[in-house]
Amino acid sequence: MSIGKPGTILLADIGGTNARFALSESDQIGAIDYVKVADHLTVQEAIIDVLRRTAGEKPARAVLAVAGPVTNNRCVMTNSPWIIDGNELQPALGFDSVHVLNDFEVVAWSLPALQPSDLIPLGGQDGLPGEPLLVIGPGTGFGVSCLVERHGARLAVVTEAGHATLPAENEREERVIACLRRRQGHVSIERGALSGSGLQSLYEALAEVDGVQIPQRDAAGITKAALNSSCELSRATLSMFCAILGSVAGNLAVTFGARGGVYIGGGIAPRFPDFLAASAFRARFEAKGRFQDYLRNIPTLLITKPDASFVGLKMFADHNLG
């Protein structure tokens, strides 16, 4: 495979089920090509297939976002058989370089480039220029990354904050978490509340605390029943989800000093922006005692742009690949 133009870069967003690819050249990101992970034994096969369908010269470099932890430019995917190793892909595909990044690291890189039309404000003032930007996201898991800029250099801090212990802010939440602890042992932010499986855990624990019989529902079913008001417990579950999201977001904002802004990504919250805006999310975000004024000034924003990851991939490439 011949080396392409130095300015052409292969961008990819790779999940457990689907992978998306696009070519970037100058200021443009090309059409996104969707690939099912199950259709290819390896990521190398998938990339070769995508590039075979692409007209023009081949890219010289690649930046890949992956849904999993990255160590030494390598990720063993959790929910697929793919192993994504940039140091192996680079010579195998004839690229000059291959960078493998965590998916939330990539979303963090996108934050400075997002436009007002890509966001829904959820309270606060204008972010302070040059201060850290935090992104959190409940979805299949709970992702957290923070973009820090110092002296013109940018770094996206990747975390495993979703595995920190789930906090309680009131007696009812304490009872719910006590129920979860009996079921799960350690109750993490991710498994206890702020993910698809976490939402289901909240629903089941609330039913036990309230002593009510409920139909079995997954996260999508709980959300639907909450939004159409067909299930009081589902609505209470989604309300608690939003409140806990606010508390966790506030905790992380003071942890990182994220006075540039806190952004909500992931696959869950964008499904109910109005419900989230009307919930206790913002009040719980600011409820930090003596630091309430500090939190009151920090903007919280919901990311609605579906392809923010490609903006982040491009931003990383522009900043780090020249």
From TrEMBL:
Record flagged with keyword ATP-binding: yes
UniProt cross-references to Pfam families, sorted A to Z: Glucokinase
Keywords: ATP-binding, Cytoplasm, Glycolysis, Kinase, Nucleotide-binding, Transferase
Signal peptide: none
InterPro entries (alphabetical): ATPase_NBD, Bacterial_glucokinase, Glucokinase
Compartment(s) of residence: Cytoplasm
The organism's place on the tree of life at top rank: Bacteria
Cross-referenced CDD domains: ASKHA_NBD_GLK
Gene Ontology annotations of biological process type: glycolytic process
A GO cellular component annotation in the UniProt record: cytosol
Class in the EC hierarchy, top level: transferase
Catalytic activity: D-glucose + ATP = D-glucose 6-phosphate + ADP + H(+)
GO MF, any single term: D-glucose binding
Keyword Transit peptide applies: no
EC number: 2.7.1.2
Gene3D superfamilies: 3.30.420.40, 3.40.367.20
NCBIfam families: glk (TIGR00749)
UniProt-listed PANTHER family: GLUCOKINASE (PTHR47690)
Protein's name according to its UniProt entry: Glucokinase
Originating organism: Bradyrhizobium sp. LLZ17
